[in-house]
Amino acid sequence: MKFLYFTDSHIRGTAPKSRKDDFFQTVLNKTREIFRIAKERDVDYMLHGGDLFDRPDISIAVVGEFAKVLMEMPCPLYIVSGNHDIYGHNPKTLSRTMLGFLSNLGFLELLNDKTTILSKGDTKVQITCAPYQFDMDKDPENKPYIVKSVDESCDFAIHICHGFLIDQPMHHGIPHTLISDIIDTKADITLSGHLHHGFKTQYINGKYFINPGAIVRISNSLREIKRRPKVLLLECNKGADIVIEEIYLKSAKPADEVLDRTEIEQHQFKKSKLHDFKEIVDSSGDFHKTDVFALLNEISDHENVPENVKEEAFQRITEVQMKREY
User: Fold this and answer.
1) Residue 126: CA atoms inside 13 Å, Cβ hemisphere, count?
2) What is the mean pLDDT of the chain?
3) Are 81 and 87 in contact (CB under 8 A)?
4) Helices (H) then strands (E): counts for the chain
5) Cα 125 to Cα 315: distance, rounded to the nearest angstrom
6) DSSP assignment, residue 54?
7) Element (H, E) at 208
8) How many CB atoms lie within 10 A of CB 12?
9) For residues 258 and 23, what is the distance between their CA atoms, to the nearest angstrom?
């Protein structure tokens, strides 16, 4: 059975300030190339790691054009929701988003909140997921990245996550989960999104941990300038070892053709100024969070706010975001 995995498409009608090409057309071209690869390599299922859209309420015009491309799919597409696909970092808002809309129309299959078993011949694969939620990287005891059980009828287990899973420790102010923290998972393959530059494939205790990186480059950081967008071909056949192949996208142009050089030249200057600003903030108090949900969660924990009060606050913020006009 063959799977093609890609992540973080960030479809949007306008171009990020770091891009100088027609970004929307670029994403469509890459999506078409991915579908061609799936057809040429006889792929059975495509898997997406989340952030299909750059925002949950992307315009109908943009979704309409993208839907036309989805009609060219050579096989089913299964997806987990990312933080950009939902309102207020809350997967329960999916029914009001464009990702939920496409799912309801049957263009793609949402993996959220269920276990999916896919089969071909005598091979069965269990697919589970961890959709993005605001606290998924906060509590070391709450590990949505870990698969605790696998259906006895399945030969392999694949877990798809949209969270800050990474191979090396990050700054203490950024919640993240290390691969070393989740090696007890029963999943044979853990696929991750969210971290755009990805990380080198890890093979630990007979298990794979993979993030190939976003198929688009939104940032003009030095790491993104050097990175080549790619997808993964996964082959799982009963009685055989898992085979993984990296396929670089030919439609991904060189960085100097699509990333704004002006922004790149100013990057180090901006970074220096941000560092100066951070030092001022750090010297004024213990402020490490910039996300409203992370701040609210930290304050709630510090002040021992009842759980029902905290949930009500989260719900109200989510409702405001959903009603906000742009």
Assistant:
1) 19
2) 87
3) no
4) 8, 14
5) 36
6) S
7) strand 207-211
8) 19
9) 9
